[in-house]
Amino acid sequence: MLTEQSAATVRATLPAVGAAIGEITERFYTRLFDAHPDLLRNLFNRGNQAAGTQRQALAGSIAAFAAHLLDHPDDRPDAMLARIAHKHASLGVAPEQYRVVHEHLFAALAEVLGEAVTPEVAAAWDEVYWLMANALTAIEKRLYEESGGPGFRAFRVEERIEETPDVVTFRLRPADGGPVAGFRAGQYVSVRVALPDGARQIRQYSLSGAPGEAVRRISVKRVYGEAAPDGEVSNHLHARVRPGDVLELSEPYGDLVLAGAPDTPLLLASAGIGVTPMIAMLADLAAGGHRAPVTVVHGDRSPADHALRADHAAYAGKLPGASVHFFYERDAGRTARTGLADLTDIAVHPGTRAYLCGPLPFMRAIRSQLIEKGVAPADIHYEVFGPDLWLARD
């Protein structure tokens, strides 16, 4: 992948670049938004920018990609690239935008590292960048071909369902009256809304309905944040969007999808609003007559906070090999457990394939327990709502 000369240079400079990558990405975003303020208003998540999580995710992905090229020179980290590409495709990222990013990222690199960025160093990291960018562009091109191309389509809200005090489900149909494309259980759509200040912000929400439905169904948790942009889209949807209103949706994307043979044991673990892709997965498994064991684990604050709880239990109940384990911090009652989700005394079947969705600490804890129980790391898949900080914290 990397030329021998570039690999040697990247290996020698990776510690310095890695130590400064946080400052580099901060300078990069400042430069980018100064030159292209429309990107912050209409493409990038202003809440994630304010919180700094997007910078952490970018830094983690660059460092992880470079390290992978050095440690595994004959292949590339396709799982990481696919996750990023799906997110980019849901936003409608275009190939030419990678040149804009390159311009400002390498200017930030030079600003932070100064004279250490010799022509040789710049050329080596340029090679790393374009290996990653070109790989992403190729994956995104394929995704666009499969989905019919980038862009958004108008959907009219048909029904609004108050699931919990903080979660609302919206059922939406195409405003043009046409059909909706199918999706794979676990995927998400991007939702673009016009905010009062004129910005058109985009957020991703997992599809929480059955894949065969003729409508799009999303369940949105209200996000409370101290910074003004935090939760601005979820609060807008909760406060302002009612039946008859129109939202713009992308086609479905996302790589957390059911895979494997129909006789594969599955474990679906979620916490909080991470339940949404699991509902679609359970609905799909029930419709397909899945016969292998399915272990369902969910953690929440209380039964009243457990969004889609009735659907969660009902779909699992249609699977003959399903076992259900709900954990609540309070008010657990007789049919659930008190405390945080824990696999300690839950049987995990040999050959299990696991799917996780929820806060990062929850997923890391469940992943560790699964590995201790003999589940192969390659068989553990996860979805992060927002920037993927898993790499940034490893």
Task: Summarize the structure in words.
The chain is α/β, with parallel strands linked by helices and 394 residues long. It has three domains: 4-147, Orthogonal Bundle (Globin-like), CATH 1.10.490.10; 153-249, Translation factors (Elongation Factor Tu (Ef-tu), domain 3); 266-393, Nucleotide-binding domain of ferredoxin-NADP reductase (FNR) module (Rossmann fold). It has twelve helices and twelve strands. The protein has helices spanning 4-35, 37-42, 46-51, 53-71, 78-91, 97-113, 119-147, 232-240, 275-287, 309-317, 360-372, 390-393; strands spanning 153-164, 167-174, 188-194, 200-206, 216-221, 246-249, 266-271, 294-300, 322-328, 337-338, 353-357, 380-383. The strands form two sheets. Strands 4-3-6-1-2-5 form a six-stranded antiparallel beta sheet, with helices on both faces. A six-stranded parallel beta sheet has the order 10-9-8-7-11-12, with helices on both faces. Helix 11 (360-372) links the parallel strand 11 and strand 12. Helix 1 (4-35) runs antiparallel to helix 4 (53-71), helix 1 (4-35) crosses helix 6 and helix 9 runs parallel beside helix 10 (309-317). The radius of gyration is 22 Å and the shape is globular. The mean pLDDT is 94. Residues 150-259 form the FAD-binding FR-type domain. Residues 1-141 form the Globin domain.
Tell how many strands the DSSP assignment holds: 12
Task: Give me the strand/helix succession.
Answer: HHHHHHHEEEEEHEEHEHEEEHEH
CATH homology group of the largest domain: Globins
Euclidean distance between termini CA atoms: 24 Å
Mean pLDDT: 94
Find the CATH topology of the largest domain: Globin-like
Catalytic activity: 2 nitric oxide + NADH + 2 O2 = 2 nitrate + NAD(+) + H(+); 2 nitric oxide + NADPH + 2 O2 = 2 nitrate + NADP(+) + H(+)
Domain Globin: 1-141
Pfam families: FAD_binding_6, Globin, NAD_binding_1
Protein name: nitric oxide dioxygenase
